[in-house]
Known about the structure:
Blueprint: H1 10-18, H2 21-38, E1 46-50, H3 56-63, E2 67-72, H4 75-88, E3 94-98, E4 112-118, H5 127-137, E5 138-149, H6 151-160, H7 164-168, H8 187-197, E6 200-207, H9 218-222, H10 224-234, E7 246-252
Helix pairs in contact: 2-10, 5-8
Amino acid sequence: MRDRNFxxxxxxxxxxxxxxxxxxxxxxxxxxxxxxxxxxxxPKLRVLDxxxxxxxxxxxxxxxxxxxxxxxVSAEMIARAQAQACEKGVSGxxxxxxxxxxxxxxxxxxxVDLILFHAVLEWVVDPQAVLQSLWDCLAPGGALSxxxxxxxxxLMRNMFVGNFEYVLQGxxxxxxxTLSPDNPLPPEQVYHWLEQIGWQITGKTGVxxxxxxxxxxxxxRDGFDDLLxxxxxxxxxxxxxxxxxxxxxxxxxxxxxxxxxx
Length: 262
């Protein structure tokens, strides 16, 4: 098995994710968290956007004045990110590397202050190993912004639409070219991996805790402003947080290494 490369579905991904209310809501909730996180960090950061795709988040970081390294295993995604950076006039603050997230360390001149790792973990074969690789790229005191596809949300969505047999069979993906991620992740498993490596989790947010469950799909678009207000109100509290289609976790790498008292 190999990690998923988006070269063959880049256009479909852009059209069906970034260009919909799904993408708009995801970015809105994500940036609520990122704005709060940035307020706790230095005014100018070295940022790694690992698996940065078309560069929406990386380019915005560059617009804020940060130095961004964006890597992706997909050459097509790198080209799209470069085009967007040029269009926004931020190419001077960005460096693009055709590399997987787990191999990016060899291209970095020094550890970074902030790592963005959004909607990638669920596409890799060995998620825990990738998180360890990113830990090694982060300076002590630095922060991680991790967003992953939530297995709880996938189960709930399929129960809502009556896909009982699919759930009973373990929700195994059988079509490679669909946009549904390969490996939905249980939140508690991801939290355990992070803490086991040494990160201190500072925040958890559910992303699209209501949007995907609406029976009337027109409400996603026609009632978007009200929907965003309600998502914002409930997405950081249980039980809604753990039912988001994605979960966004912020974590820091302590200045001092964790002591082992065993």
